[in-house]
Design goal:
Elements (H helix, E strand, L loop, with lengths): L15 E14 H4 E2 L8 E13 L5 E4 L12 H11 L8 H7 L7 E5 L18 E5 H8 L20 E4 L9 E3 L2 E6 L6 E5 L8 E6 L6 E4 L7 H5 L3 E2 L12 H15 L4 E4 L4 H9 L14
The structure holds zinc ion (ZN).
Length: 304
């Protein structure tokens, strides 16, 4: 299969209906994220932390991709609180992901899987809020959490990030898992075994960073949840590059891999009928706000 094609659908191909959820807002400082700083942008912008609720067409199973902010900043390790205050404030969280799920008419205990793209504070939510879900993470996410606060008081990652006894850890170097190449991505894992959803190893931003690629129709449409592989569309379009802030460095710990990952997303975008969605997708959020929250749960993002 070439880098520019995705697997064809099977007969009666299951797929996902997808909806966005907003679970908090944070401040993005342009000098931390983008270089050059586009003149149209102010020194900072407020962006949502988006999660995506997915409903399987055949089984009705609900899967959540990312889980946004915790409701209160004191639920984070002290070092995370300090980082948030220093670089990402103001933060405002009126609802968390579980509130949004319930607001749309679904009990959070009906969510069976929560996929966490990476261990950052604006993606992990609170696992006690989805009591019946299996958490699915990359190995790097698990390792950051397991070695985190309070055992390591200097860690911004909490050992309470992932629920004990209901976490599945996916290691891209584990040969016993059936990782395959899908489109431009070397490590993709067929999550349900029916070709409806693929976990995509997406290195660069933080160890363990994963994306999700799902079908959105029976006949060859897709959505790709790119999480923090790209924080702003200007990076995808090439009108800006990752900043290297003198105090913060690059927000992508492995910048070379992160640059390669953006190139792969651009390859993916050449495949017909693929919708790419970002965790901090400001245009998606603004458009929804102007259009009666179209695409936000319980409404759906239409398939391409
Ligand atoms: Zn992040």
């Amino acid at each position: 299969m070439s880098n520019n094609s995705l697997p064809p659908p099977q007969s009666d191909q299951p797929f996902f209906e997808i909806s966005a959820l907003e679970a908090g807002f944070m401040t993005f400082r342009t000098d931390i994220f983008l270089e050059p700083q586009p003149p149209s942008l102010s020194p900072s912008w407020e962006g949502p932390s988006l999660c995506f609720l997915l409903r399987h067409s055949a089984t009705g199973e609900y899967i959540l991709f990312d889980s946004g902010f915790r409701k209160s900043m004191d639920q984070y390790p002290p070092v995370a609180q300090a980082l948030i205050q220093k670089f990402f404030a103001p933060v405002r969280v009126s609802h968390d992901a579980a509130d949004r799920v319930a607001e749309g008419g679904l009990s959070p205990s009906n969510v069976s899987k929560v996929i966490i793209s990476h261990a950052h504070f604006d993606h992990i939510g609170n696992s006690s809020r989805f009591p019946a879900a299996t958490y699915i993470v990359g190995k790097g996410t698990h390792d950051l959490a397991a070695s985190g606060y309070p055992t390591n008081p200097d860690s911004p990652y909490g050992q309470d990030t992932l629920p004990t006894g209901r976490t599945r850890v996916l290691d891209p170097s584990d040969a016993s898992l059936s990782w395959t190449q899908i489109g431009p991505f070397e490590h993709a894992l067929d999550l349900l075994g029916d070709g409806s959803a693929y976990i995509i190893d997406s290195p660069g931003h933080l160890p363990g960073h994963i994306n999700l690629l799902v079908r959105t129709s029976t006949d060859g449409a897709w959505a790709h949840f790119a999480a923090d592989s790209v924080h702003d569309w200007s990076l995808f379009h090439g009108t800006s590059v990752f900043a290297a802030h003198p105090d913060v460095g690059c927000v992508h710990l492995d910048k070379e891999s992160a640059v390669r990952q953006v190139a792969k997303l651009r390859e993916l975008a050449k495949v017909p009928r693929v919708r790419i969605l970002l965790a901090h997708d400001v245009p998606l959020w603004k458009k929804a706000r102007e259009n009666d929250w179209d695409g936000f749960w319980p409404k759906k993002i239409p398939s391409l």
